[in-house]
């Protein structure tokens, strides 16, 4: 059920439990994420997929009464992402996240992409080059190259989301975390972003949380199915959708519940 | 990676520095409040005794008291409350429950928003020209009370509206469904349920009015008054008199202002004592308002 | 929700039928009576609401009426450009500039205190302070605006002024600095409470976007939250300006009552509001030029605050629509 052991692993989740106060949202998650592949996490509402994703960049730490148990080991550095001794700020410097609703900053298109770079002290020529490179990677450069100084809000919803992707790419993260990135977008914008995700995996390891199974099937190399805070099954995507091992998985995929 | 560490350390330092600055700035206000209270108490507590509360003002500092001022404040507040509360609550009810979306409603709402931002002394000027002279009400308790009532009217209206807004629409709908008329819904349901929130706003408005000085000086309140207005209740028929409405008056903040403005320092003590009484009254009223708001919130949970 | 039209129609119908049971006729009358009663009540409530319009008309009317007699004697040009304000002298001068200068300087000092401190407090309470701390500090700060201004005036004269005299040698007892500083402290909650509300209304998703890129709290606060909440924050600044311009007692007690055309806050001066108080304390015959001068001054003050109030109202509407 896990990806072949010969592939390099980017992250290993071991015995992960997560609590919102008294409520246990994640129960004993064990999962391997191979490097430079796209992993999809699917499951019905409330299964914990976003919660799992948000452990990777410690966004939970912004809220009170959240608690982690277990490990998420990042390779090749061997750091435990959720360890008490690990600095959340440092983890967020290594990861990037794209959110469900495009949340472009109230700044110009250029400044949005440059934000993360400026935080890391990048300036001058290097800054300009990185911004252009990220916008090209996000397939947005041609559409915005003449209006970099305009407000990000002059872009359409799909373009804003690609801007957020460019912003996330600019800092050259070790992993790219997508939290239902296309659920607020129209089909054309969605398909552009799915093509983008597929292209990106050569550069970075991707985790995408989605409630859209067809999207998971289109875009990912392997898929994990979660239900009520537990990991039910994880397989290469092909196998997950054609021949799932677990009855619950099969029921979800065939639409018996959602 | 060491680059990261350096940047992260710098960021954490920034956060710490700002946290300290933030706490310091917050303390500026609180420390000032404390200094103010300590200053007043240090200067004035010695002077605060029963004699002070029951003496008229005098040329001699040690004999001067606030009797006429606090009686004046009390009488003014009666007029203010009797005017502002019915007027404000009625206006609030109209705007929240009856008014449609038309130009008239917009006009009224813009007016209220504007009036809330008009300096208090302008109300005094209006009252001087209109009430004192044009309407010939004179420089009396009635004029003073009306002036302050107009001043706090926007506060009462807003408080009423906010209190009514907390009542869920479902309550109105079920009352109508039982066959109530609009006024019956207001009278039997909305007003009783919102009384807590409205009361809180009214008390805060009145505590604001008690501290007002400028408009009353403008209409000609006296700063030295050695007599009391005629009492509202008498032993002889007709038992209730309204003469006091037409009487000249002074109020507590004006008395304090008068004492503070004197060049001779001996009156400073009196001013401080008067200030203590003022602060005690306003802070108690605010405290009562907060307690009422807390009790109401506990009792009614929509 | 008005009365159900069906009831009315059936009542009318019942009234038309020549032979009708007395009960139907009585209840139709009762319904019509009740309807009349409802209309009367609504009219009374409407009148109460219209009282606000009446008050505004009263204010504007009186100010213009009394000022018009004033401006019959004094040219508008002299009023706006003359540099001396001495309406009670034997040969009076009517230049409003000294009073306007006094108002502006004290306002500037107050804003120099209230705007930075209020903004920093708002950022701290909104983005840094834990919920418990915020719940205690916010109402504590709001107590500042509950203190009567005459008490602040006392504090400015008796405490702040001597304190500043130690720091600035040669500072006169009455000066615009002490008055302005105390006024500024009084205004802090106007800025901090409204700005904090504006910042808390910024959706968490925007902050998460910044944090996810590795930003710390202060950078997120300054570069993402503050710009997003700007129209609400500026509305609070405008409210503070309007409040400072209209303040009377603090400046009347601590800044002196001598009109003085200067921009040096270390000097004493009279504001528009202090002048009105000074004249009202005296005995001016109704209808004299001195009496009318306070209305001219009041009109100037009204116009100044009206301009800022309109600006603030427009900005607050925009802020509410954004979310």
List keywords for this structure.
heterotrimer; A: 258 residues; alpha/beta; Rossmann fold; six-stranded mixed beta sheet; four-stranded antiparallel beta sheet; 36% helix; 26% strand; B: 302 residues; mainly alpha; MetI-like fold; 2 domains; 11 helices; 0% strand; globular
Largest interface: B-C, 91 and 88 residues
Give me the CATH superfamily of chain A. P-loop containing nucleotide triphosphate hydrolases
Topology as H/E string of chain C? HHHEEHHHHHHHHHH
Give the helix proportion of chain A (percent range): 25-40%
Overall structural class of chain A, as computed from helix and strand content, comes to alpha/beta
Label the structural class of chain C.
mainly alpha
Number of folding domains of chain A? 1
User: What is the CATH class designation of the largest domain in chain C?
Assistant: Mainly Alpha
User: Any idea what the CATH architecture of the largest domain in chain C is?
Assistant: Orthogonal Bundle
Number of domains of chain C: 2
Annotate the secondary structure layout.
The complex is a heterotrimer of chains A (258), B (302) and C (323).
Chain A: E1 9-20, E2 23-34, E3 38-42, H1 49-56, E4 66-74, E5 79-80, H2 88-94, E6 95-98, H3 109-119, H4 124-137, H5 141-144, H6 157-170, E7 175-179, H7 187-200, E8 205-209, H8 213-219, E9 222-227, E10 230-236, H9 237-242, H10 247-253
Parallel strand pairs in A: 3-8, 3-9, 6-7, 7-8
Antiparallel strand pairs in A: 1-2, 1-4, 4-5, 9-10
Chain B: H1 2-44, H2 50-54, H3 67-98, H4 103-116, H5 120-134, H6 141-165, H7 169-177, H8 182-210, H9 214-219, H10 252-260, H11 266-299
Helix pairs in contact in B: 1-11, 3-6, 3-8, 3-10, 4-6, 5-6, 6-8, 7-8, 8-11, 10-11
Chain C: H1 5-16, H2 22-73, H3 76-81, E1 85-86, E2 93-94, H4 97-128, H5 131-142, H6 149-167, H7 176-200, H8 204-212, H9 217-228, H10 230-246, H11 249-254, H12 272-281, H13 289-322
Antiparallel strand pairs in C: 1-2
Description:
The complex is a heterotrimer of chains A (258), B (302) and C (323). Chain A has 258 residues and is an alpha/beta fold. Chain A has helices at 49-56, 88-94, 109-119, 124-137, 141-144, 157-170, 187-200, 213-219, 237-242, 247-253, and strands at 9-20, 23-34, 38-42, 66-74, 79-80, 95-98, 175-179, 205-209, 222-227, 230-236. In chain A, the strands form 2 sheets. A 6-stranded mixed sheet of chain A has the order 6-7-8-3-9-10, sandwiched between helices. Chain B has helices at residues 2-44, 50-54, 67-98, 103-116, 120-134, 141-165, 169-177, 182-210, 214-219, 252-260, 266-299. Chain B is globular, with a radius of gyration of 25 Å. The termini of chain B are far apart. Chain C folds into 2 domains: 5-73, no CATH class; 85-322, MetI-like fold (Orthogonal Bundle), CATH 1.10.3720.10. Residues 1-23 of chain C have low confidence and may be disordered. In chain C, helix 4 (97-128) runs parallel beside helix 7 and helix 4 packs antiparallel against helix 10 (230-246). At the A-B interface, helix 2 of A face helix 1 of B.
């Amino acid at each position: 059920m896990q990806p072949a052991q010969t592939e390099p692993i980017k992250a290993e989740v071991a015995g992960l439990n997560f609590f919102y106060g008294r409520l246990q949202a994640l129960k004993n998650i064990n999962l391997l994420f191979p490097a430079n592949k796209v992993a999809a996490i699917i499951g019905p509402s409330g299964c914990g997929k976003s919660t799992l994703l948000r452990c990777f960049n410690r966004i939970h730490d912004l809220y009170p009464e959240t608690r982690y148990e277990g490990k998420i080991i990042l390779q090749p550095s061997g750091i435990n992402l959720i360890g008490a001794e690990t600095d959340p700020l440092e983890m967020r410097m290594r990861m990037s996240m794209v959110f469900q609703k495009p949340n472009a900053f109230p700044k110009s298109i250029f400044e949005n992409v440059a934000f993360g770079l400026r935080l890391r002290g990048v300036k001058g020529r290097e800054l300009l080059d990185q911004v252009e490179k990220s916008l090209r990677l996000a397939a947005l450069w041609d559409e915005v190259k003449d209006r970099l100084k305009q407000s990000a809000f002059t872009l359409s919803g799909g373009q804003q989301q690609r801007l957020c992707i460019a912003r996330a790419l600019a800092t050259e993260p070790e992993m790219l975390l997508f939290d239902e990135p296309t659920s607020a977008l129209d089909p054309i914008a969605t398909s552009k972003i799915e093509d983008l995700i597929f292209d990106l995996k050569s550069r970075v390891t991707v985790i995408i949380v989605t409630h859209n199974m067809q999207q998971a099937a289109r875009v990912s190399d392997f898929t994990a199915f979660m239900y009520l805070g537990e990991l039910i099954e994880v397989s290469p995507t092909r196998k997950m959708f054609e021949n799932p091992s677990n009855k619950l998985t099969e029921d979800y995929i065939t639409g018996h519940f959602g | 990676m060491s680059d990261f560490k350096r940047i992260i350390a710098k960021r954490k330092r920034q956060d710490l520095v700002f946290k300290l600055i933030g706490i310091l700035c917050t303390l500026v206000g609180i420390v000032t409040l404390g200094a103010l209270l300590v200053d007043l108490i240090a200067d004035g507590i010695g002077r605060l005794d029963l004699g002070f509360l029951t003496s008229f003002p005098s040329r001699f500092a040690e004999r001067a008291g606030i009797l006429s001022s606090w009686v004046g404040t009390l009488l003014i507040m009666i007029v203010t409350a009797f005017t502002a509360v019915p007027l404000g609550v009625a206006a609030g009810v109209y705007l929240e429950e009856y008014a449609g979306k038309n130009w008239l409603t917009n006009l009224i709402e813009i007016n209220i928003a504007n009036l809330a931002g008009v300096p208090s002394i302008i109300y005094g000027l209006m009252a001087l020209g209109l009430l004192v002279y044009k309407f010939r009400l004179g420089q009396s308790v009635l004029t003073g009370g009306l002036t302050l009532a107009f001043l706090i009217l926007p506060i009462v209206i807003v408080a009423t509206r906010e209190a009514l807004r907390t009542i869920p629409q479902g309550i109105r709908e079920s009352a109508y469904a039982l066959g109530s008329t609009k006024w019956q819904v207001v009278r039997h349901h909305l007003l009783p349920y919102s009384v807590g929130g409205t009361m809180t706003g009214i008390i805060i408005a009145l505590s604001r009015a008690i501290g007002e000085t400028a408009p009353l000086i403008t209409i000609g309140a006296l700063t030295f008054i050695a007599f009391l207005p005629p009492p509202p209740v008498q032993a002889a028929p007709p038992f209730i008199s309204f003469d006091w409405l037409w009487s000249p008056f002074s109020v507590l903040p004006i008395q304090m202002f008068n004492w503070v403005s004197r060049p001779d320092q001996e009156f400073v003590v009196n001013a401080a004592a008067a200030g203590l009484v003022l602060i005690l009254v306003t802070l108690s009223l605010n405290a009562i308002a907060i307690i009422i708001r807390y009790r109401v919130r506990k009792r009614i949970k929509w | 929700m008005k009365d159900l039209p069906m009831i009315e129609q059936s009542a009318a119908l019942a009234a038309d039928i020549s032979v009708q049971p007395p009960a139907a006729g009585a209840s139709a009358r009762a319904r019509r009576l009740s309807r009349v009663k409802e209309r009367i009540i609504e009219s009374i409530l409407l009148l109460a609401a219209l009282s606000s319009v009446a008050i505004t008309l009263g204010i504007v009317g009186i100010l213009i009426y009394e000022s018009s007699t004033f401006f019959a004697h004094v040219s508008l040009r002299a009023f706006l450009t003359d540099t001396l304000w001495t309406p009670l002298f034997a040969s009076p001068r009517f230049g409003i500039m000294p009073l306007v200068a006094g108002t502006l300087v004290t306002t500037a000092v107050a804003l120099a205190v209230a705007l930075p401190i209020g903004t920093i407090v708002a950022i701290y309470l909104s983005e840094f302070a834990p919920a418990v701390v915020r719940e205690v500090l916010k109402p504590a700060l709001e107590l500042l605006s509950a203190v009567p201004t005459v008490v602040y005036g006392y504090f400015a004269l008796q405490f702040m002024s001597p304190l500043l005299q130690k720091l600035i040698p040669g500072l006169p007892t009455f000066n615009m600095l002490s008055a302005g500083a105390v006024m500024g402290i009084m205004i802090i909650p106007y800025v901090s409470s409204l700005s904090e509300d504006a910042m808390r209304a910024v959706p968490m998703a925007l902050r998460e976007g910044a944090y996810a890129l590795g930003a710390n709290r202060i950078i997120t606060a300054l570069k993402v939250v503050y710009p997003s909440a700007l129209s609400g924050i500026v509305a609070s600044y405008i409210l503070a300006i309007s409040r400072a311009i209209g303040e009377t007692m603090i400046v009347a007690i601590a800044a002196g009552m001598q009109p003085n055309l200067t921009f040096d806050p270390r000097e004493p001066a009279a504001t528009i509001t202090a002048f009105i108080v000074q004249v009202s304390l005296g005995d001016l015959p109704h209808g004299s030029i001195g009496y009318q001068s306070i209305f001219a001054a009041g009109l100037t003050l009204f116009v100044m605050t009206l301009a800022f109030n309109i600006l603030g109202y427009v900005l607050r509407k925009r802020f509410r629509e954004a979310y």
